[in-house]
Amino acid sequence: MPHLDFTALLHGQFRDWLLSGFLFSLQLAALTLVLALPLATGIALLRLAPSRLAKAIGFAYVEGVRSVPLLVHMLFWYFGAPEALPVALKAWLYTGNIEAISAIVALSTYTAAYMSEDIRSGLRAVPRAQFEAARALGFTFMASMRLLILPQAVRITVPPLISQTLNLWKNTSIATVIGVAELMYQAQRVESASFRGFETFAIVTGAYLCISLLITALAWLFQQRYPVRVAS
């Protein structure tokens, strides 16, 4: 049985690489979540809007994005999309951190497509009589959704949105394919330099597991503090 030694990975340069990747993965997931949630809400509202054109746009977005693997999205936004931009904007992107920007765009658009369906289900779970009453009182579609339906739907959609947040956290690892210096990218650097593959990926596995369990615990606490209540 090979001798296992975690000591070298928990000190010095290797520790710094892993810590840097872990923190960057957290930042990547947090920023993506901040961007994906409002986008998902907008797409869900399009799916329920009275306009056929709006419904068609929402449907096309969800089905188009979900039908393509995340890896393809990542590669498209890194290699393909910049080529269609104006020269000045493309030059600015390549002088900056285009890898991180591409990963954020890919993760945000991909995650929003899945979250929008969860939000739409939550909106539809609120009794339609409430929406009809709001419309009868003179509220517009958007005002009815914003003031009456959405606040109730948020609580209903917390469990599935938490599930999507867990998926998002794990999906950040795919950004390594375009050179984003997140946890998996740094783990590969450490493994190549230290030749400690088992120890390296055991630490990485523990890091992903800890954050996943933390998200699950926060979701449970939220549900205990704010149980689902929908007026009839």
Key structural traits:
232 residues; mainly alpha; MetI-like fold; 9 helices
In short:
With 232 residues, this protein is an all-alpha fold.
What does this structure look like?
The chain is mostly helical and 232 residues long. It has one domain (7-225): MetI-like fold. The protein has helices at 12-48, 52-66, 70-80, 87-95, 98-125, 128-136, 141-171, 183-194, 197-225. The longest helix has 37 residues, at 12-48. The chain starts with 11 loop residues before the first helix and ends in a 7-residue tail after the last helix.
Total beta strand runs: 0
| Structural class category | mainly alpha
Number of domains: 1
- Proper CATH architecture: Orthogonal Bundle
Specify Rg, calculated over alpha carbons: 21 Å
From the 3D structure, determine the CATH topology: MetI-like fold
Distance between the termini: 63 Å
Which shape, going by the Cα principal axes?
Answer: flat
Q: Kindly estimate the percentage of residues that lie in beta strands according to DSSP.
A: under 5%
**Global mean pLDDT:** 89
Number of DSSP helical runs: 9
Kindly report the name of the CATH homologous superfamily. MetI-like
What summary fits the major beta sheet? none
CATH class: Mainly Alpha
Low-confidence stretches: none
Could you state the order of secondary-structure elements as H and E? HHHHHHHHH
Overall helicity: over 70%
Q: Any chance you could write out the topology, listing elements then pairs?
A:
Blueprint: H1 12-48, H2 52-66, H3 70-80, H4 87-95, H5 98-125, H6 128-136, H7 141-171, H8 183-194, H9 197-225
Helix pairs in contact: 1-2, 1-5, 1-7, 1-8, 2-5, 3-5, 5-7, 6-7, 7-9, 8-9
